[in-house]
């Protein structure tokens, strides 16, 4: 975890009255990046009880009838149970450090969940087309549907110049106002995987010395691109071997098609058809992972079975798709 100053100040933003933008006292955190006037937090609404879109990307508040507390955007300095800004009272007031509030479970819905072969589901939604920029994972219990934990890291490209990185990040995260936190916290993909392996190891989902696939758990992605294409590509760029736990996954689009007998082009289609309001900002990885997790919760409550849909034969081999009816 990087070391950051706890000082902060308020900045204006067109969609909000104020946001916190922390300053780093360490020159190494800047990595050649000059400070600008954009806030670190995404443009989320301090929403009222009625869910409503506040900008492009449909930032909304999740319905929580039992709570009148205003919705808060997820803190993006927060990862693996730690946040460098926890001593800053204003920061704590503005941002949420508990993803569970966006993934509530209705106790009566668990009665409808069918027995699952897997214990845990790891919802993954990568961001970054040239190289991976964000690696977010939301872990839920496959039977109770409850949120268990999350892993989130911004990823620093390996084979790009600092100038190109600044352009890349401005184009991707500048519109959300989180480019500052990206520059403060991003680490290389190899380091991200090392931290992720510690995380899944602590949850007893995988042991490095044993290798192999995950233990009673599986990745859930909205499409095959994340694990079929992007992770192998990034491993080549980062000059590392494809980890064994990336050899199989669940494509939620295929599960959705076979369970509801209708095709969904992506997360937004699923949420619209299931009448689920969007939480957070579309195309911010951690928020997309939460929203996909909410789709998974809804499908489990409807009686869907989460099962592996794709397997890679080897680190360099072809992918075998296990469902006859699938999204191509």
Strands in their spatial order, largest beta sheet: 8-7-6-5-9-10-11-12
Proportion in β-strands: 15-25%
Major β-sheet, in short?
8 strands, mixed
Order of helices and strands: EEHEEHEEEHHEHEHEHHHEE
Number of distinct beta strands: 12
Per CATH, the superfamily is Ribonuclease H-like superfamily/Ribonuclease H
Task: Describe the protein's topology.
Blueprint: E1 8-13, E2 16-22, H1 27-30, E3 78-79, E4 82-83, H2 89-94, E5 120-124, E6 134-141, E7 147-156, H3 162-173, H4 179-185, E8 187-188, H5 189-202, E9 217-221, H6 225-237, E10 248-251, H7 252-260, H8 267-273, H9 285-302, E11 310-312, E12 319-321
Parallel strand pairs: 5-9, 7-8, 9-10
Antiparallel strand pairs: 1-2, 3-4, 5-6, 6-7, 10-11, 11-12
Describe this structure in words.
The chain has 9 helices and 12 strands. It starts with 7 loop residues before the first strand and ends in a 7-residue tail after the last strand. Strands 8-7-6-5-9-10-11-12 form an 8-stranded mixed β-sheet, with helices on both faces. It has a two-stranded antiparallel ribbon with strand order 1-2. The chain has a two-stranded antiparallel sheet with strand order 3-4. A hairpin with a 6-residue loop joins strand 11 (310-312) and strand 12 (319-321). With 328 residues, it is of the alpha/beta class. It is globular, with a radius of gyration of 19 Å. The chain has one domain: Ribonuclease H-like superfamily/Ribonuclease H (Nucleotidyltransferase, domain 5).
């Amino acid at each position: 975890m990087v070391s950051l100053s706890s000082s902060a100040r308020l900045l204006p933003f067109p969609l909000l009255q104020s946001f916190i933008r922390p300053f780093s006292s360490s020159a190494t955190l800047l990595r050649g990046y000059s400070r600008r006037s954009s806030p670190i937090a995404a443009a989320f609404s301090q929403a009222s009880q009625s869910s409503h879109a506040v900008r492009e990307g449909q930032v909304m508040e999740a319905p929580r009838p039992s709570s009148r507390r205003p919705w808060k955007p997820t803190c993006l300095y927060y990862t693996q149970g730690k946040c460098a800004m926890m001593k800053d009272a204003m920061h704590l007031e503005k941002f949420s450090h508990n993803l569970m509030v966006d993934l509530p479970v209705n106790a009566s819905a668990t009665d409808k969940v069918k027995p699952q072969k897997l214990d845990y589901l790891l919802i993954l939604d990568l961001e970054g087309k040239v190289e991976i920029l964000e690696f977010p994972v939301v872990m839920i219990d496959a039977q109770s549907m409850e949120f268990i934990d999350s892993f989130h890291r911004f990823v620093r490209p390996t084979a790009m110049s600092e100038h190109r990185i600044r352009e890349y990040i401005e184009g991707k995260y500048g519109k959300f106002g989180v480019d500052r936190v990206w520059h403060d916290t991003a680490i290389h993909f190899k380091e991200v995987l090392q931290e992720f392996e510690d995380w899944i190891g602590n949850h007893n989902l995988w042991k490095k010395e044993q290798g192999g696939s995950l233990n009673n758990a599986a990745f859930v992605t909205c499409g095959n691109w994340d694990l079929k294409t992007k992770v192998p590509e990034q491993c080549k760029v980062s000059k590392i071997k494809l980890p064994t736990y990336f050899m199989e996954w669940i494509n939620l689009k295929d599960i959705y098609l076979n369970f509801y007998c209708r095709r969904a082009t992506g997360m937004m289609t699923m949420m619209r058809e299931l009448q689920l309001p969007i939480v957070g900002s579309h195309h911010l990885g951690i928020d997309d992972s939460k929203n996909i997790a909410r789709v998974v919760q809804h499908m489990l409550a409807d009686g869907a079975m989460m099962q592996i849909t794709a397997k890679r034969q080897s680190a360099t081999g072809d992918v075998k798709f296990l469902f006859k009816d699938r999204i191509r």
